[in-house]
Every structure is written in C-alpha cells, then in structure tokens.
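glucan endo-1,3-beta-D-glucosidase: structure, please.
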Amino acid sequence: MADVFMLILLAVQVFVLAAADEEPFIGVNIGTELSDMPHPTQIVALLKAQQIRHVRLYDADRGMLIALANSGIQVMVSVPNEQLLGIGQSNSTAANWVSHNVVAHYPATNITAISVGSEILTTLPNAAPVLVNALKYIHSALVASNLDRQIKVSTPLSSSIILDSFPPSQAFFNRSWNPVLVPMLNFLQSTGSYLTLNVYPYYDYMQSNGVIPLDYALLKPLPPNKEAVDANTLVHYSNVFDAMVDAAYFAMAFLNFTNIPVMVTETGWPSKGDSNEPDATIDNANTYNSNLIRHVLNKTGTPKHPGIAVSTYIYELYNEDTKPGPVSEKNWGLFNVNGEPVYILHLAGSGSVLANDTTNQTYCTAKEGADPKMLQAALDWACGPGKVDCSPLLQGESCYEPDNVIAHATYAFNTYYHQMGKAPGTCDFNGVAAVTTTNPSHGTCIFPESSGKINGTLVNITAPSMNSTSSDSTARNFYIGGFMSISMLLRVVMWILVVL
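Here you go.
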C-alpha cells in the first residue's frame, strides 16, 4: 500500500512539474542597435527591477551571458543569421558554437532555448537549404553535452509565410517552402520543441488599408457583434494576435502536424512613427502591450486551443536609435536607453511580470550625468520651498550614505514626487530628474510610499516647468516639467493648499 501511495505521489509531482513547465510567460527581446548601449550589468539590473524573467538575445554575447549568470532569468540565445551558413554546413562548427556560447555558461546562466537564425526564409532565403541541418547540428551538440532536455532548439518564422491567414481555418504555409518546412516541423516534433513565430498586428493593420479595425489589432475587448468570425468553424476572433497564432496551428495541421505548440518570439507596437504612420503612438503602444501581457498571462489560450499557453516575447526592451528605416523602427522599446520607461504599462492585477511598470509603482530619481550644480539647486529647493522632510539625509541618519548629491537628490526628488501624488510635472526639476520604475531604496534607506499628503494637506504647484514645452525624449514629453530655476521661483512660484 505504501508503494502504491509513493507511486501516486510521484505521479502527482510529475504532473505538477509538467504543468509548471507549461505556464505561459512574457519575455522581452534585447536589441543592440543603440548608439550608447548600456553595460550588461545595467541591463540585468533593469530586468531584475522589472521582474522580467525571460529574455531573448539576438546573439550569444559573452558579456550579457556572464551578467545574466545566477540571476534566475531564463535566456534564449541566438545563432545570428550571418553565422547560419557556416553552422548549417559543418557539424563541428555547430559543436564549437554550442561549446563556446552555451556549455561555457550553463547552468550558471539559465539558457533554456536556442534560436537558430531569425526569419531565414524571408530575409536570407539563400541559407534556407541548410536551415534544417543547422537545427539538427545544434541539437546534436546539445545531445553530446547532455543538455538536449533542458534546452530547446527552434528558428523564428515570419508570419508572412502563412498565406490566406483569415479565416484561420483556411491558412496554409507558402507551399514553395514546404521542402524546408516539412523536415523542420519533423525536427520540432521529434525534439519536443515549439514553432517560434514573429507576429506583428501593427503591420497587419497598416497593410490592411482599413479592413482591420484598430481596436481589433490592439487586443481591445470587443462586443460579439464586432468580432471576426471564421465561417468554417464559426469560432469568434476578437484580435489579430489570436487569429495569427491559430492560423499557424491550422497551417501546421494542413501538413499533418498537430502537436507542436506555438511560441511568439516577437510582437509589439511602435510608440512613434513618421507622418504616414499616425497610429504609431505612445497610447497605442501602451494599449497593445498592456493588453497583450494580460491576455498571455490569463491562460485563456486561443480560440482553436483554449487554455494552451502562448508564451510571448515583447519586441523590445530598449528603443534602438541607430536602427535603419522609418522612425517607427527606432521606437518599439519599453524603455529609453537610460532606463526611463517610454510609457507606464496599465498592468494592475495582471501578475508580477513587469510589476514595477504600473502607475502605483513609479519613482523619481536624479539623472546620471546631470550637472552637479543643477542637482544641488534642485535638492536645496526640494528640502526648502518643496517642503520635503530631508532629515533622513543628515549625517548618521538612514539615507545619509552614500554621501553624494545624486543619492541625496534622488531621495528628495522621489519624496516630493510622492507627496504631489505623482502628478504630471512633479518629476523634472529643470531636467535633472526623471520617472523610473526601479525602486531606488537601498540598505536601511527605504524610500517613502505614495501618500499625496504633507501633514494631512495636499499640495500642488501652479507654476509651469521651464522644460515643459520642449524635449528630445519621449519619456520627457510624457513626464513634463516640475522645477524652475531658483531665480524664476523667487518670482513666480505659488502654492495652493487644499485641506483634505
């Protein structure tokens, strides 16, 4: 009887572990086309602060892999497209790549997947004949290192290779690629991997010439009469994302593959665009990514596969200012290069991922590299006319260390920002402060939570910021104004006290 009980317990444990493995997640892609790329340790600090536990790298950068070690963050590394031909033609080259870029870092760096190229069929078709060999050679190297169960191998496809994608039940892959796709799907099925797909409702919407409604592309809730209906299955679709994922499932089924899960390796929405891209806005980017995160994490799956997770990587962590192409190409990021959020995601009640990216969890910090004299003037103002209690900054008190103007100014700026209810215009201080989602508390110096009150009184300021009319930063446009020079303050600052 005891043996039976132990077998049942073991079976339950296996089931629970399997279920845990299938939990959907939101990850983030980390692009590198920035004129001032943050140091890997800065990137990892941002990931930790945002509770981002899954990232996809477009290469296998050694500095990033070292910085990610012992972070708990799960990492998808990539074979860059330019290395694919060499790896696809040489088993030893693939083994060498795995040895240097995976085995050398695992398990300290939690590498869980390898992306072999990206959108090869549509961006590098001359390499397509060796794509499946590259997948097999990389996998064989993992087998030789006894890592094939821990690390999956796949290759992201562009959703554009799926033809006749709506209704999803009629979708099929571009048949000219079947000589590559069929053995590729065989490989994914035999290794227990997933079909990785890049899905961009923004481009589907832009190219539809008005056929696709904006709300349908942005994953906004729609009434049943506004949903799209698949005439063959009578299934309702309320957004482009689900329709494209199901189109991939149907396209695989058309080739007799019905048990390969889909993972979305890229999706997102640009926050800024050229004049011919009017819907590339901060509000739409915020709406899409906020709705996407909730949609993925609520485990509803898609209409064809309800309850089956569609784990997804957002494109991308940073705005990439050196990326070629239209303005929109440079503005897919959740953050600017200095770690300031481009927008604050609407994620209340959606779980812990990107938990600091909610309107209830923002902070005001001094900018690195700001003029020390400007910082000191702003600090003096906050601790004086700003009515911030700066006693914790006194020698021997909890926030005295580190004893420098940046740390002290950050404490004062953040306290003022919270006292003002985090209202727009209360974290600028003449351009030396910025809103962040990273809690600046350290050691015994715990930064105050938002109260919106000073001694029971709500305080507001009527004077506009000197910087509220111009800025080079999207985030600065969003978080306008807040501090005027001392000389201006002597002339125009006035306070309105409203007794609660």
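Notes: Residues 10 and 16 are 10 Å apart (CA to CA).
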